[in-house]
Amino acid sequence: MTVLASALDTAGPEYAAHRAAMLDKLAELEAEQAKALDGGGEKYVRRHRDRGKLLARERIELLLDPDTPFLELSPLAAWGSDYPVGASMVTGIGVVEGVECLITANDPTVRGGASNPWTLKKAFRAHEIGYANRLPSIHLVESGGADLPSQKEIFIPGGALFKHLTQSSAAGIPTVAVVFGNSTAGGAYVPGLCDHVIMVKERAKVFLGGPPLVKMATGEESDDESLGGAEMHARTSGLADHLAEDEHDALRRARRVVARLNWRKAYADPPPAAPPKYDAEELLGIVPGDLRTPFDPREVVARIVDGSDFDEFKPLYGASLVTGWAHLHGYPIGILANAQGVLFSAESQKAAQFIQLANQRDIPLLFLHNTTGYMVGKEYEQGGIIKHGAMMINAVSNSRVPHLSVLMGASYGAGHYGMCGRAYDPRFLFAWPSAKSAVMGPQQLAGVLSIVARQSAAAKGKPYDDEADAALRAMVEQQIEAESLPMFLSGRLYDDGVIDPRDTRTVLGICLSALHTAPYEGARGGFGVFRM
Ligand code: COA
Q: Where does the CoA carboxyltransferase C-terminal domain start and stop, copy by copy (predicted)?
């Protein structure tokens, strides 16, 4: 064992300051997450309950095995948009009859559970996760279908939802629909395309067109029950496989369906693992409030990996990127973690080599971000920083082992890409409340804009208004800062959630367990041309 030593002074003023800053950010985060938990607000929640119905999260809780965790995904979806935080849908990974499943649940208290553009993005992301990791999916359906005022944003791309269901089925990944209420028009294809369908008696309404539309189209008089009631679908159309007495019965039946899937993960669960030697609580005091102050990511590694046991690779070379091997909840992982923020040529080459090694050995990779990007300047350009950064990006792009990313601090510029940012398809990507991500830092970006504007004015022979420039810089800085923050980025689905640093080991453990449902094999070759 190579147990990491810790130099964190938990009694010192810096630790206290970092901790206080992190706790402030966590409190802000909690306030925003509470909005998603509130759903459509008191009035609609009460109305829903008065109808004798369970809330989306209650349905999920009853579906899951007792006392098992639920890893909610994209809880802040739609944050900062015109739509309610949470995007009228709950998605996540939970355990049903011992099987890790991808679960989606419409929130019918938010505009009838109608799907807006952010609901769609959230559902697509949930599908991506389910599909990549081969997780059976369970859909708890009660929705007014497309959010009609925003139909132009969702109608055409939204069709992919149904395609995804049938493609999952074709890939042998089970799909289950439990219909609690409305599932009309396009929504009717959710049960239509799932492998297993359960409908709640006197509640489920599944039809292509409701009574008014049918009357308009053909003149036929009808009612909800004969057009799309659960009894009709169970006895006559055959769309429902199970007729449930009520919501509890429907969830019980869903659990029985999963119990009979004969589902087997690609890998056996590892034996119980030793916890880290250091307290997870101390993760609150590592990242400085000001991200320009560097911190040692080994302090983080020491608090998330099994036994704090970490074998570093090439510690003396490219020291501002820490690379090494560990286990997390019994799963082997390779870790790449930024130390001093900047990626130089040596760090980039070291990363490319390390990623290739992980692929040769079939070891998943964890990227811990705190980078301001690749080094700029004459010396570094002449030293080949572009080709070395390209090497790292080539390696991360063509790597075939599963990747996990956690944004702890800065994640700027192409450094975000090289460290397996969102566009590089990590299986999961989470941010800490301390994270910031953008093309560059706000001051740098505002400064660049100002220099460009000044040069442009000079080229045209025009005078430059320094006062206006200062105001513009301040405005741009503020805008970029706001757009770099984790809540904003999470709202846009650029991560899978903002997590409490203390939960990192648990969250990554759930992800590692889930991703071992699907077989994987590292790339033995197949990288692009490495420019030497
Ligand atoms: N798009 C936009 N808003 C919708 C919506 C939709 N598809 N469905 C419901 N809403 C809104 C309602 O206008 C209402 O808003 P308000 O409270 O500000 O007045 C709110 O959501 C709740 O709807 P309400 O009808 O009061 O809820 P309900 O629980 O009694 O009924 C439905 C829910 C879904 C059965 C009903 O709203 C409905 O039939 N919606 C239209 C369904 C449809 O045809 N969709 C097109 C599918 S492609």
A: 275-517
- Cβ within 8 Å of residue 385, ≥6 positions away: 344, 345, 348, 374, 375, 376
Helices (H), 425-485: 442-459, 466-484
Burial 133-167 (b: 16+ CB within 10 A, else e): bbbbbbbbbbbbbbbeebeeebeeebeebbebbee
Rounded to whole angstroms, how far apart are CA atoms 256 and 196? 11
Task: Determine the angle formed by the axes of helices 160-170 and 117-132, rounding to 10 degrees.
Answer: 10
Contact 223, 205 (CB under 8 A): no
Task: Give per-residue pLDDT as tens, 313-351.
Answer: 999 999 999 999 999 999 999 999 999 889 999 999 999
Instruction: Identify the CA nearest to 448 among candidates 422, 428, 429, 476.
Output: 476
Q: What is the model's pTM?
A: 0.95
- How many A from CA of 277 to the centre of ligand 1? 53
Q: Are 111 and 40 in contact (CB under 8 A)?
A: yes
Task: For residue 144, give the ligand 1 atom closest to its CA.
Answer: 34
- Among 401, 380, 389, smallest CA distance to 351 is for 389
* Shortest-distance atom of ligand 1 to CA 186: 48
Residues 171, 288: Cα–Cα separation, whole Å: 45
Residue 298, Cα to own-chain centre: how many angstroms? 24
Expressed in angstroms, the distance from the first to the final Cα of the chain is: 36
Ligand 1 mean position, distance from CA 144 (Å): 5
Does residue 158's CB lie within 6 angstroms of at least one atom of ligand 1?
Answer: no
Beta strand residue intervals within 245-328, DSSP E:
311-313, 321-328
* Tens digits of residue pLDDT in 92-124: 999 999 999 999 999 999 999 999 999 999 999
CA distance 248 to 57: 13
Q: What is the dihedral of CA 328, 331, 334, 338, to 10 degrees?
A: -20
45 alpha carbon – ligand 1 mean position (Å): 14
> Would the CB of 280 count as within 6 Å of ligand 1?
no
């053909």: which residue's tokens? 218
> Quick count: other Cβ atoms within 10 Å of Cβ 415?
27
Domains and CATH numbers, the chain: 1-36+269-439+485-532 (3.90.226.10), 38-259 (3.90.226.10), 442-483 (no CATH)
